[in-house]
Amino acid sequence: MPAVAGSLYMASQHKGVPPPLPPPPRPLPVINLGRLTMDSASRALAVRDIVLACRERGCFEVVNHGISRYCMNGALEAASEFFQLSTERKEEFASDDIRQPIRYDTSSRDGISMSRSFLKHYANPLDDWIKFWPTQPPTYREKMGEYAVETQRVSMQLMEAILQGLGLGPSYLQEKLEGGVQFVALNNYPQSSAKKADKIGLAPHSDYGFLTILLQSSPGLEVMHHEDDAWTSVPAIPGALHVHVGDHLEVLSNGQLKSLVHRAVLNPNESRISIASIHGLSMDEEVHCAEELVDEHHPKMYRGSSFQDFLDFLPANMNRYKRCHHSDNDSGMRRQQPAGNAKRRRRLQQLKGKAGQG
Ligand SMILES: O=C(O)CCC(=O)C(=O)O
Ligand SMILES: [Fe+2]
């Protein structure tokens, strides 16, 4: 018998030995964020762990981040109470115009994420945006506002650590990040029904911006790590937050970090809420590859683009999402030159869309 791939499998079958099991999924890194504010040795280790997780997995969970359970539960309650309002009340925020400061809708225009409803609004600086937020439920502004301020703080800590780990220094872009966009997406998914075959809540996509910080009421988020071809389910660890790399961090790092493809599946046991907080530079500020990370061995791989460019790109390309289910994502921020391994490129072409935003 020629030595072909799979011959071991066939040999073991002959002897009635069960085929070898695939390796178990590697657990997601869990980072204790408290170490960032301890002594410099602890901080250095935390910075190393964060950058390693971004580089190798595209995401990680954070604990000891300083956001209280009370605050996190408050945000989930406020979101849940909003989605329980009458259709009429919620539709006060309905709009097809993705430039609106707040937007409610009952299905995505990608033609896939049909069972999700969502409310999206901006949050940083809070004083500029909170006036657009719902006044029902009565505690919405207070609870969501507190959570938004806290996630913005955590995003600053994380960005400082990542920029330090990339060798750019913790205060790189600091002012621009402080005044940058925080875009909050509240997603509401029904429990999956045994009758319906379609279990997808939100189609595969990567997020815009540098980082996304995600809070989920129960499991449903799935991620595809860079070297994998399979989905990994993200557990809903009580008190933890999920963090993943967005497109603009891929650009800024000149491809050293890659944005994470992710999706949401419907939970078989309960309806589910997730709150995604997306952090980037301000609307018109272009993100470019950091000059410090470009040299003759690492040529510049991306064009510059802003959040605004992304909003301009979306409406004209919505039909493509419908027709193809996934976009090939040539929004202008993607690589000028193909990079990385061919498998990942093909996967990105198939999978990358913008279903989760806009
Ligand atoms: O619901 C989830 O877990 C994912 C949400 C998401 O990816 C998004 O809002 O961009
Ligand atoms: Fe997303």
From TrEMBL:
<dbReference type="Pfam" id="PF03171">
    <property type="entry name" value="2OG-FeII_Oxy"/>
</dbReference>
<keyword id="KW-0560">Oxidoreductase</keyword>
<dbReference type="GO" id="GO:0046872">
    <property type="term" value="F:metal ion binding"/>
</dbReference>
<comment type="similarity">
    <text>Belongs to the iron/ascorbate-dependent oxidoreductase family.</text>
</comment>
<feature type="region of interest" description="Disordered">
    <location>
        <begin position="324"/>
        <end position="358"/>
    </location>
</feature>
<dbReference type="InterPro" id="IPR044861">
    <property type="entry name" value="IPNS-like_FE2OG_OXY"/>
</dbReference>
<dbReference type="InterPro" id="IPR027443">
    <property type="entry name" value="IPNS-like_sf"/>
</dbReference>
<dbReference type="Pfam" id="PF14226">
    <property type="entry name" value="DIOX_N"/>
</dbReference>
<protein>
    <recommendedName>
        <fullName>Fe2OG dioxygenase domain-containing protein</fullName>
    </recommendedName>
</protein>
<dbReference type="InterPro" id="IPR005123">
    <property type="entry name" value="Oxoglu/Fe-dep_dioxygenase_dom"/>
</dbReference>
<keyword id="KW-0479">Metal-binding</keyword>
<dbReference type="InterPro" id="IPR050295">
    <property type="entry name" value="Plant_2OG-oxidoreductases"/>
</dbReference>
<feature type="domain" description="Fe2OG dioxygenase">
    <location>
        <begin position="180"/>
        <end position="281"/>
    </location>
</feature>
<dbReference type="GO" id="GO:0031418">
    <property type="term" value="F:L-ascorbic acid binding"/>
</dbReference>
<keyword id="KW-0223">Dioxygenase</keyword>
<dbReference type="GO" id="GO:0051213">
    <property type="term" value="F:dioxygenase activity"/>
</dbReference>
<dbReference type="InterPro" id="IPR026992">
    <property type="entry name" value="DIOX_N"/>
</dbReference>
<keyword id="KW-0847">Vitamin C</keyword>
<keyword id="KW-0408">Iron</keyword>
